[in-house]
Amino acid sequence: MSLFDPEELAAPAPAAPSGPLVRVRLLVAYDGRGFHGFAPNRPVRTVAGVLTEALEKWLGHPVVLTCAGRTDRGVHAWGQVVHFDTSVVDVDCEALRRSLIKMLGPAVVVRSAEVVDSSFDARRTAVGRRYRYTVLNRPVPDPFLAGLAWHVEEPLDVRAMQLACDPLIGEHDFSAFCRRPPVEGASMTRRVRRAEWVELGDGLLRFDIEASAFCHQMVRSLVGTLVAVGRGKKRAGDMAWILRSGDRQLAAQPAPPDGLVLWEVLYP
Amino acid sequence: MSLFDPEELAAPAPAAPSGPLVRVRLLVAYDGRGFHGFAPNRPVRTVAGVLTEALEKWLGHPVVLTCAGRTDRGVHAWGQVVHFDTSVVDVDCEALRRSLIKMLGPAVVVRSAEVVDSSFDARRTAVGRRYRYTVLNRPVPDPFLAGLAWHVEEPLDVRAMQLACDPLIGEHDFSAFCRRPPVEGASMTRRVRRAEWVELGDGLLRFDIEASAFCHQMVRSLVGTLVAVGRGKKRAGDMAWILRSGDRQLAAQPAPPDGLVLWEVLYP
Prior knowledge:
- Chain A contains 6 helices and 10 strands; from the N terminus they run αβαββαβββαβββααβ.
- Chain A is of the alpha+beta class.
- The first copy, chain A, folds into 2 domains: 6-116, 2-Layer Sandwich (Alpha-Beta Plaits), CATH 3.30.70.580; 128-266, Pseudouridine synthase I, catalytic domain, C-terminal subdomain (Alpha-Beta Plaits, 2-Layer Sandwich).
- In chain A, strands 1, 2, 3, 4, 5, 6, 7, 8, 9 and 10 form a 10-stranded mixed β-sheet that branches.
- In chain A, strand 8 (189-201) and strand 9 form a beta hairpin.
- The A-B interface holds A 29-31, 76, 101, 105-109, 111-112, 140-144, 146-148 and B 29-31, 76, 101, 105-109, 111-112, 140-144, 146-148.
């Protein structure tokens, strides 16, 4: 249990609907601009808010969504996974998917919809999450990447940024790179399996990170600190002791949400 | 003269400012979403409108912009070229570029600014324009390409679309693919040097076209008809006689503006 996001575990369990139910899993991509994050938060516009509303309209009954990873305001997803239960036992998933694309497009795209076993839980059975963060590292910005990448003008030392990733691999307490969890005493231990910078050319840098789960703002906090290393404000060797310190004051400011995408959720 | 856009020639000549003047050339990229096209058109928001306002604020005198190609509402540019004259004879182009990026970002990015000889004219000395049009050809759309590509669900026959490009190469009257010009009797003859579809993978198709100049909506009209060929609604062999007919009714509806980018302007 300690490997899962305490924020996620703290969320109220979905109200149990009665009668025969079918569980549906959706794979959802969204452009986070224009949304106050994923989680429902009335009266502001959230991804879960518009998705729930569309599902309820289509199915004709209240829907409680469970998601794999709640993204913050302005953060995007390519592979968000959600599940919900419906009493429409003969639900036509392909028709549902097409209707949702029409109702929610173009900012939210349901990439697939399928009936799954009731043991599937988008949040609790996920064994890993992959995030991508894009940095545009060149003097001149790109209007087509506004809101989709962090524009950093000064040249970054990508080799140092990659070196600084080494101490992240493995199981660690990531308190230094997380916002305080809402649950008192919740574990901040996460297992990072991969953390890698990829140079795509033309100044585009992509950070790929995979972990069992993530604490709140963990990727943005890591990217902020790694970019500080790339800028020469911190050394690659600093990463290990910042991590060990558990002190959020030693990490750099979190990177902006623009460049962050929940890329993929992994299940057994 | 016949090779240039009659719309462009019909525009009023810039008012001649007095005193010693310096001509400045800007290379401008913009995301066309949120703009009613390039050309000034008060009270609506246009790229030339916001650029002129920013330049006048920075330079402290009225500015008349001349551009290489006026793009329509929702059409983008990576390499739009504009020029203007200023009485600030010692203008610091790099400071100007940086200020414009701050004032106009993130949707409009001035990629470069330089003083040029007064014989340079962004519109009249251009010898070619390159446009790119992006089609996303797969069942599921992509939220990050909304407004930047035309989503076409049904599989397209790209080979037929490429074959249909052959008759476009060379000097032709493109009346069948153009909106009526505002100047009576203006020539619709243009020289197309290149017209090519490139498959980028994952259903992404890019159409690259280079010509001396373009008539109004010519690229969108060509793409609309080429996609009709790809859908099997028209045959590749139809392209030659639609072109010869000069009849706009025989071409397909213009493709949406979303996928279109003024990519580059060529000078001697």
